[in-house]
Amino acid sequence: MAPQTSIPVAANVLGTIGTVLWCIQLMPQIWYNWKQKKTDGLPGLMMFIWAMSAVPFGVYAIVQGPYLRGVEWPMTLVGILSALLLAGGLIPPYFEIAKRNGRVVGITVGADFGKLSDFVFLSIDWMGAFFSLMALGTYNPPPPTDPLNPVLSPPPKISQCIYLLLLEIGIFASHLIFLLRTRSLRRRAKETRTPFDTMPEARRFVFPRPVAVEGNVAAVEGEGDVEKAGNADSGGE
Q1: Helix (H, G, I), strand (E, B) or coil at 214
Q2: Residue 227, beta-bridge partner list
Q3: Fewer CB under 10 Å: which end of the chain, C or N?
Q4: pLDDT of the residue at 110
Q5: Whole-angstrom Cα distance, residue 101 to residue 131?
Q6: Helix residue ranges, H only, the chain
Q7: Cα dist. 218→172, 212, 223, 228, 229 in Å?
Q8: Which residues 6+ apart lie within 8 Å of 230 measured at CB?
């Protein structure tokens, strides 16, 4: 990018914090998936899109040559692609959330129901965007648009950070609403020592959905086998 002669100390500090957070954001998620030996609820498309967004960022260093010769469209194209891919990676989780009627599964580290404090991966990513936004906000007056990369310059970058923050807040809010809607059901499951996912009332929050519950056996939609529901207090009833 074009050299900047006056970068506020606060921008350097906040920007560094945001960069470090974005560099380590996936480590808790990787640990969680390795420990669980599954990736249910974590869209592979999300990871693929985010990985693809790194390609335009790398290409940026290559296409500076044509820009110096007066060809500007490669820089603009690279900037648009990287911005769209980075922000678009948070769209696939909403399809997973819709399958489970607002319940967030897989993008969490911790309890079975994913308390809001257990969203380590998303929390780190959210804070990375927040600190990056704060870093851009410390410039006074705002820095000019970088002619080498107009899409990823501070003014458009601010919009991108806000977009990321809002999408992740939506995921948090969706699961919070799920926890509020199911508080009595989860309490009853805990009192009866019954797995939440095997309760008939919880079918709409499970994917694939059980299509039948009979005794302590539940058939799962889309699967030919029948699996034990594990109802701990069903004996004799």
Answers
A1: strand
A2: 218
A3: C
A4: 47
A5: 31
A6: 9-24, 26-36, 44-60, 64-68, 73-88, 92-99, 120-137, 154-181, 183-191
A7: 30, 6, 11, 6, 6
A8: 195, 198, 216
